[in-house]
Amino acid sequence: MILEDYRIYGDVLVFDTTYRTNRYNLICAPFVSINNHWHNCMFACAFIGNKKTDSFVWLLETFLKAMENRTPTSIFTDQDQAMANAIEQVLPNTRHTLCIWHLEQNAITRFGALKKDKEFKDFFSAGILLSQRSESTHHAIGFRASNANTLTEFYTIFKKTTNRWRSTEKYNEFTCSKSIAFTSLLLSGMLKHATQLNDFGEKVFTLSLFRDFEQEFGYSMATTIQMIGRNEECLLYQVALEDKPWSANQVNYIHESQSVWCT
Fold first, then answer.
1. CB 146 within 8 A of CB 21
2. Which of 25, 85, 161, 237 suits a disulfide with 53, CB 3.0-4.6 Å?
3. What Cα–Cα distance (Å) separates residue 211 from each residue in 183, 185, 187, 194?
């Protein structure tokens, strides 16, 4: 079951070792992601004795071996240099990004007045983990473990946690299969497609993801778009929310490849 989850949801990995939840003072290292209902998904959990590069190398190599050597596209971690060294060695083609929670703490303590300056672009939360993933991994996982727990007690807590997550996922799958997405917006072609089934008889979006898509679609209706340049290959636009001109971003559209990228 875990391997199947990883095959489906293993593109993005959250790996955090910032807490200890046992009487032996071992470091707890869970591998977590999110499923298609935007809820937590557990792939593995390990204990290591220290935060040296060699320990992280062993842990990552063991994890990959258990997961059929499938490497994630992105991995989010805390600001541990030894971990960064291990990721560069074991996962050289995986994009390594720091967790937003840690970045936000640094922004509060180190950047101070800059966060109040509207001219300063807030790149710390540029859609990497989205609004629902701004907390630390420890808080997101919700382990009910403490420094007094033995490893056996921790395993029991771990199983209860993962079982609770799986039960929630089954409930969400059932609710989604028996529900119809609705919206107060006029069903244009794109929004209507998002409420329908795909070629496999499954909904294009789960209800949770449809709400996120609907919100983004609503934002798109409140933007102003202005072409500011073009050449034979690329069209360049400036896009901003109508009441927030300082939020403008440049969007490039390449017709031949039908690709879009923005600042």
1. yes
2. 85
3. 9, 12, 14, 10
